[in-house]
TrEMBL record:
Segments of this protein annotated with the region Disordered: 249-276
Keyword Transmembrane in annotation: no
Gene Ontology MF terms in the entry: ATP binding
Keywords associated with the record: ATP-binding, Nucleotide-binding, Transport
Protein's name according to its UniProt entry: ABC transporter ATP-binding protein
Amino acid composition bias (Polar residues), ranges on this chain: 257-276
Species in which this protein is naturally found: Kineosporia corallincola
PANTHER family assigned to the protein according to its UniProt record, in alphabetical order: ALIPHATIC SULFONATES IMPORT ATP-BINDING PROTEIN SSUB (PTHR42788:SF13), TAURINE IMPORT ATP-BINDING PROTEIN-RELATED (PTHR42788)
Pfam (any one): ABC_tran
Top-level taxon: Bacteria
InterPro entries named in the record: AAA+_ATPase (IPR003593), ABC_transporter-like_ATP-bd (IPR003439), ABC_transporter-like_CS (IPR017871), ABC_transporter_ATP-bind (IPR050166), P-loop_NTPase (IPR027417)
Length: 276
């Protein structure tokens, strides 16, 4: 894939929190290209700057040095072209499901017929039809995540920035949400940056996985498996090798790139098929 102006470009990104002896610099001179349409997973140990990177992409945080370009335009603050889904249940509890999903498109001034159509489409797409008038408190944690997913897609951003959105959910609920997000991503052709600390979640979802640690990109690999990537991937030799290499890259003290866990693969193969 080419990166000429499309997608996200991060150049020399340095972020510092605090001053003097208390200063923390989670990101130092980080470079990253995310081609348009890619599903990128950002993996990393706790406290190594994954959320910090995402906040810079969202324009919520001003770096000490470096830049972020979105489709070639410098990011200087939040924008409608970038939608975020946070770790926490961030949907407004005082709005019913449909009003939550309508919030973005209505706020952008879309004609009523259009935003209503969007609400109806994305409510169905995440499996919440029939629950349009429910309050968030009446929903399960997984359903509230579905509202957040529908709301961000309904707002039609170019880039979806997701910060461990399914971290608190059980395996089956998570798998269902993975399927939903991947389907919507395919339909809408968005660019996704998905932060997780879970290697299996990254392998299940990503076209590509970068490991962020030690201030920069410690590893950068393409995931060579066709979707859907079901539980059978857990038994797959190539997937296990990728999993081990990523776990090694997550371990403290692993050197920065070069030395990616595995050569990038350009051809995809079925998740469940044995290697020829
Ligand atoms: N607002 C802040 N003020 C001061 N330090 C911060 C702030 N936000 C993050 N940090 C520090 O920056 C470092 C990176 O934090 P960040 O949240 O980006 O890590 P992370 O990889 O997303 O972690 P986790 O997986 O635990 O969510 C940590 O040392 C954290 O304590």
């Amino acid at each position: 894939m080419t990166t000429t102006g499309r997608g996200l470009q991060v150049r020399g990104l340095t972020v510092r929190y605090g001053r003097g002896a208390d200063a923390v610099t989670p990101l130092r001179d980080l470079d990253l290209d995310v081609p348009a349409g890619q599903f990128l997973c950002v993996l990393g140990p706790s406290g190594q700057g994954k959320s910090t990177l995402l906040r810079c992409l969202a324009g919520l945080l001003r770096p000490a040095a470096g830049s972020v370009l979105a489709h070639g335009v410098p990011v200087t603050g939040p924008g409608a072209d970038r939608g975020m889904v946070f770790q926490q249940d961030a949907i407004p509890g005082w709005l019913r499901v449909a009003d939550n999903i309508a919030l973005g498109p209505r706020g952008r001034g879309l004609p009523e017929s259009e935003w209503r159509e969007r609400v109806s489409y994305f409510t169905r797409a995440v499996g919440l039809d029939g629950r349009e008038r429910a309050w968030p408190r009446e929903l399960s944690g997984g359903m509230r995540r579905r509202v957040a997913i529908a709301a961000v897609f309904a707002n039609d951003p170019e880039f979806l920035l997701m910060d461990e959105p399914f971290g608190s959910l059980d395996h089956l609920t998570r798998a269902g949400l993975h399927e939903t997000v991947l389907r919507l991503w395919r339909e809408t052709e968005k660019t996704v940056v998905f932060v997780t600390h879970d290697v299996d979640e990254a392998i299940a979802l990503g076209d590509r996985i970068v490991v962020v640690a030690g201030g920069g990109v410690r590893a950068d690999v393409e995931v060579p498996f066709h979707r859907p990537r079901g539980d059978e991937l857990r038994m797959d030799g190539e997937a296990n090798a990728l999993r081990s290499a990523l776990l090694d890259a997550l371990a403290p003290g692993t050197p920065q790139r070069p030395g990616t866990p595995q050569e990038s693969s350009t051809s995809q193969r079925p998740a469940s098929g044995a290697s020829a």
